[in-house]
Design goal:
globular, 574 residues, alpha+beta, 5-stranded mixed β-sheet, binds magnesium ion, binds adenosine-5'-triphosphate, 9-stranded mixed β-sheet
Amino acid sequence: MRMSMMLMPTLREIPAEAEVISHQLMVRAGIIRKVASGMYSYLPLGRRVIEKVEKIIREEMNAKGGQEVLMPIVQPSEIWKETGRWDVYGDEMFKLKDRHGREFCLGPTHEELITDLVRQEVKSYRQLPLLLYQIQNKYRDEIRPRFGVMRSREFIMKDLYSFDCDEAGLDASYEKMYDAYNRIFQRCGLVYRAVEADSGAIGGSGSHEFMVTADNGEAEIAYCPACQYAANTEKAEGNPSDEGQPAAKNAAMEKVHTPGMRTIEDVSNYLKVNAKDIIKMVVYEAVYSEKAEIVAVLIRGDQEINEIKLKNYLDCLHLVMASDDVIVAAAKTSGGFVGPVGLTGVRLIADKTAAAMGEGITGANEADYHFRHVVPGRDFIIGETADLRTVKAGDACPHCGKALEITRGIEVGHIFKLGTKYSESLKAVFLDENGKEKKMIMGCYGIGVTRTIAAAIEQNHDENGIIWPVPIAPYPVIIVPISSKDEVQMKKAQELYDRLNSMGIETILDDRNERPGVKFKDADLIGIPLRITVGKKAADDDLYELKVRSNGEDHLLGLEDLLLTIKKVLEPIG
Ligand code: ATP
Ligand code: MG
């Protein structure tokens, strides 16, 4: 492609609204332009990168027996009502009506539609397993669209759905996708981690997220440097490194005056104890489809409650902190001094750290008073115990006991064992070899194509711009003639350009009438992996300067050596 003909509006200034580097560089390199909040146009360079990533994904999906389909973006409400998700999905779903008043949504995901298709077309075990996928726009009216295409309202996703006869089949499909995802992110040239993920209320161990490690990542990953354990902190388990829980003293419970001391910090300062000597209680309102419930959670005072674990444990739709009024009404006490002793009208759940305490300090359910020497199990009944705490760096790994570390990542892919969640509500059944009707066992597997691109930039850039990993670069090679007025240089550059094109190497020829400095700056900013400079040495001695964007290496090479070197660098990975 001749640069003079390209739409590649590069910018020198950092766009004001772009908080993270990938967003800034995508705008500056002329890859995206904003249309509305969370909605972007992809300019020619951006479109090319999408195509590269999609090609890798397609090849790996097809290699595992995946078959590509294409379903509508606009989806009728009826099918969503059948699974109950029309209401549950909430404000994230874009809804619309046609001229007859029929309701539709813009697909945020396609479990409903694909299951509807398969339940109509598949009747026998002979037609299973099936792996069906598509690559297509998804729509989610995110509460906080941000970081450019990283969290946008319209984005491209590859979504594959597996249909199997039994759990063993699902395990095999899942294993295939796990392997394919590893290959995809490796082939894209990314540093990533597969981590155990929160699988929501559906339960089971069957969910992994693929995280591109990046300081700006929204997700937190706990991982063990000693063994293979890695999990999203939304679900990660660990044991507090500090075992200093107070031993049971068998002292009688005693009421102490703590005027105005509402927080853990207040109480620990006032009573001169450590936060871990306090039994913290947090009261929530758990909302279910039919009812709401007041839930009090106990945890050791120096620990934090993980609300995602709690929500999954309760299997509720959402959780809100109970207001003082609600607490007072339910427990007949005043907020801020609540505690488990004598508590009624509230479901009480102890995190393992609270249940393990020998004794502790708790609110006395009376304004300005606490109890001390409260012994769990003696002074109040622990009905339920669960793991509800947020892991911390330094916790003991649940597998090997070594200290966990915490890092940040960008979730680019998510694979998930669904089981019969959708085949049950949508009655997707088949006849097994004995003629018995069975529900299909499903899995779903998503990759955010556009988020992957942002993540790639987040991980591969320097102060001059993007450094595309070779496999997803919009063009792997750019030729920069030093002087567009020098006829010999331009002729050499043109010949080289023709040669590379004939070898099937996608190349940009910067034929603009610009100063070399401008051309070099743009080449760096748009991140082309290999730059060939055609200057005086090329005109006189047929020598070309090859510069590698990723490490800044320079080579001065004759034409044939140059072509050989380029071919070698561009050899596909994996
Ligand atoms: P998140 O927790 O980041 O909102 P999610 O769990 O909602 O993600 P999935 O429903 O599993 O995401 O979607 C599969 C993939 O689609 C994600 O791994 C991510 O790469 C991508 N994705 C999800 N939401 C967005 C978005 N708003 N913008 C861009 N990509 C997205
Ligand atoms: Mg989401």
